[in-house]
Specification:
The chain has 21 helices and 6 strands. With 721 residues, it is an all-alpha fold. The longest helix has 124 residues, at 146-269.
């Protein structure tokens, strides 16, 4: 400090400092007070300080007050000139004595720091307080540098406040870190304990496995010893039998030699060869036998070498036959190419003919739909005495006009028959019982007269709807006819159940035009399975759900474009013509635009007699047509007459051909229905039992007509010729 050259300004005598009494301590609340309060306290303290710090009431401009002192500029503290000047300064200390103001400030700072050190609860924050006060004194006394020093002080104070806030914010994280650390340590200890337990279990298992391995090794050693022993016994037996074989061969050779000797002796004793030498004859016989053996060996060699050789005459004959066959093959190939080309031309003609046929068929259907069909008067053969006038129908001409509205002649015949039958039914008070024969349904087996309950058509429809609701509410294991009779017993009691069974049966047998009655009659008599009705109802419910989802505003209205989109997404396998028919049944006309709104909820409503709207009726008609078309395609794929027998593998293959998207479970369901076999007893595909199972094609198709059979995916397109 003695050698540092700097310039200071003199200050007014108003700036006076007085050290704090030794017994005064710093209040910690000073740290939390605002800036105005701090300034006020500092001003009060400065006013209490005496003016003994300055020389003559003015601040000393130390070290610039020394006379003859030269200011060193641009000198580094470590340079040689700097060291020399430091030395000179040390040699002349009296020239650079500290001002009294500086010494008093230093003494004041030392005392304050000593007081803080002596305190029991002094902190780093409190240790800054004396420095703050000294800095405030400088700011107030040095008026020229007050803005700069104030900005420096404010910058440091702001940074300290920011750091304090960060420390306070990090305190909870520190506590959380400690908690997390303890949790992790506990988890680690738990995992170590669990690992120790697993290691102990694995060690025990290892010891058990080692014991098992030792046991197996012992068994292996014992088995190896047994094998060695058996091999040794086998070798001994082999040697024994080998020696037996050699002994047998020797005995056979001895027997042959004795036989030859006996023959030689007999030849020698024969009267015709008394003159020959026996030794010569024996030698000749021996040589002859050697020649015979050699000849036999050569013959065997020739057979082995040339046994498979074909004679030249046969070879030439076969070569000529092969040449003739090759010429015939070339001729047939040329003929085949010609026939193939003709077949392609005929197939093209056939396809064009099919298109024309489909066009003519659609035109025929349109004509049949728009024209009036010839009435089928054979339906009235039991009521030929009745004329179709208005007085036959109950309710007069007005009701007949209502019933005949929008119907053709064939439908009018059905309406007329239903009205006649309902009139006759109302006149009957009793029904004759059908007896207990096996052909009689179980719910109609009764002998005697049964009362006619004479319900209205609406009551019958409501009763049938209740029966369906109870049937679908829970899974029923009994057959549908048994369920129907039990339902009647539960509803009307055992005494009236049979009467209601006959009454409802006679009603649903007459009213064919009523959907609820006709469908219930078909299921009750076994013409349809329950799945047909259930699937159709589920389809209608799913379609209503899709339309409701498309109605984002929940207003009950859809545009024709939305209606078309929902139909195509719900029924992806329907053709454009079928979608067009459904839209027309729903109220769309070719002249109307796609922006027209449709009240889709009205399409699914029913009247009091259970009759649905034309849209739902058209869905049912298309379903029946699609089923008939599916079975017709199956018959065409089989390529058989109705009276012929079809095997189980052939029917399975035909189903997979016309509908490749069928899964195995569905195919088994269809095949089991066609052959009347439980699915649990169905043989696996490729089993030999499949080939032995046959059924008349017409019978199989009639059985498939009963169940819910439909196309699952599109049929693969036929390859182009």
């Amino acid at each position: 400090m003695a050698c540092q050259q700097s310039r200071y300004h003199s200050f007014s005598s108003a700036s006076r400092l007085q050290p704090r009494p030794s017994g005064v301590t710093i209040d910690e609340s000073f740290l939390t007070e605002d800036k105005s309060t701090q300034n006020r306290k500092l001003l009060q303290k400065r006013r209490t300080l005496t003016g003994q710090f300055s020389m003559g009431g003015h601040l000393s401009p130390w070290p610039t007050y020394t006379s003859g002192q030269t200011i060193l500029q641009n000198r580094k503290p470590c340079s040689d000139d700097y060291q020399k000047r430091v030395g000179n300064c040390q040699q002349h200390p009296f020239r650079t004595a500290k001002p009294r103001y500086l010494e008093e400030l230093e003494n004041y700072l030392r005392k304050e720091l000593l007081l803080l050190d002596l305190g029991t609860d002094s902190t780093q924050e409190l240790r800054l307080q004396p420095y703050r006060e000294i800095f405030e004194f400088f700011i107030e006394d040095f008026k020229t540098y007050k803005p700069l020093l104030s900005s420096i002080k404010n910058a440091y104070e702001g940074m300290l406040a920011h750091q304090r806030e960060k420390i306070r914010a990090l305190e909870p994280l520190k506590a959380k870190l400690v908690t997390v650390n303890e949790d992790c340590n506990e988890r680690i200890l738990a995992m170590k304990a669990e690992e120790k337990h697993e290691i102990s279990l694995l060690k025990k298992e290892k010891m058990n496995l080692l014991k098992i391995i030792d046991k197996k090794n012992e068994e292996k050693i014992s088995l190896q010893s047994e094998v060695t022993k058996l091999r040794k016994n086998l070798a001994e037996e082999y040697l024994h039998y080998l020696s037996e074989r050699d002994a047998r061969k020797i005995l056979i050779a001895d027997l042959n030699e004795l036989r030859y000797q006996r023959e030689d002796i007999s030849l020698a004793q024969s009267p015709g060869i008394w003159g020959e030498d026996p030794v010569k004859l024996t030698l000749a016989l021996k040589m002859t036998r050697q020649d015979l053996t050699r000849t036999q060996m050569e013959l065997n060699t020739m057979k082995a070498n040339f046994g498979d050789v074909v004679p030249r005459r046969d070879f030439e004959m076969q070569e000529k036959t092969n040449k003739d066959l090759q010429e015939q093959l070339d001729t047939l190939r040329a003929s085949y190419e010609e026939v193939r080309k003709e077949h392609e031309i005929l197939m093209q003609l056939h396809m064009s003919t099919l298109k024309e046929r489909d066009q003519f068929f659609s035109e025929l259907q349109e004509i049949q739909r728009t024209s009036t069909p010839r009435p089928d008067w054979t339906k009235c053969k039991d009521s030929s005495s009745l004329s179709p006038h208005a007085d036959v129908v109950a309710g007069g001409p007005e009701r007949w006009q209502m019933l005949a509205e929008g119907k053709n002649s064939d439908q009018l015949v059905d309406v007329l028959l239903e009205e006649i039958g309902s009139g006759l039914l109302r006149e009957k008070d009793f029904f004759p019982g059908l007896g207990y024969g096996e052909a009689i349904p179980a719910f109609l087996r009764f002998d005697g007269l049964v009362e006619n309950k004479k319900p209205s058509k609406k009551d019958v429809v409501n009763l049938l709807k209740d029966a369906w609701k109870e049937r679908l509410a829970e899974e029923q294991k009994e057959t549908f006819p048994d369920f129907f009779f039990n339902f009647l017993e539960h509803r009307f009691g055992p005494s009236d159940a049979m009467a209601w069974a006959y009454t409802i049966f006679e009603n649903i047998k007459i009213f064919h035009s009523n959907e609820v009655m006709s469908q219930f009659y078909a299921v009750l008599m076994g013409k349809w399975s329950e799945n047909v009705y259930v699937t159709q109802k589920e389809t209608v419910a799913q379609l209503l759900k899709e339309m409701t989802n498309a109605d984002s505003q929940n207003e009950g209205l859809l545009t024709m474009e939305q209606f078309n989109t929902v139909l195509k997404s719900t029924f992806p396998l329907k053709t454009e013509e079928q979608i067009q028919e459904l839209m027309e049944a729903g109220g769309w006309h070719p002249s109307s635009s796609n922006a027209d709104l449709l009240n889709y909820r009205s399409l699914f409503m029913e009247d009091e007699e259970g009759q649905s709207e034309p849209f739902v009726q058209k869905l049912w008609e298309q379903y029946m047509d699609e089923k008939d078309e599916y079975l017709q395609q199956l018959k065409q794929e089989l390529g058989m007459e109705l009276h012929e027998e079809v095997t189980l593998p052939k029917l399975r293959g035909a189903l997979m051909t016309i509908d490749p998207s069928l899964d195995k479970q569905t195919v088994n369901t269809y095949v089991s229905q066609a052959f009347q076999l439980p699915e649990s007893e169905m043989p696996e595909e490729g089993d030999e039992k499949e080939e032995g199972m046959v059924e008349i094609l017409q019978t199989a198709l009639e059985r498939l007509q009963v169940i819910d059979i439909r196309r699952v995916g599109p049929r693969e397109p036929e390859p182009a010729s």
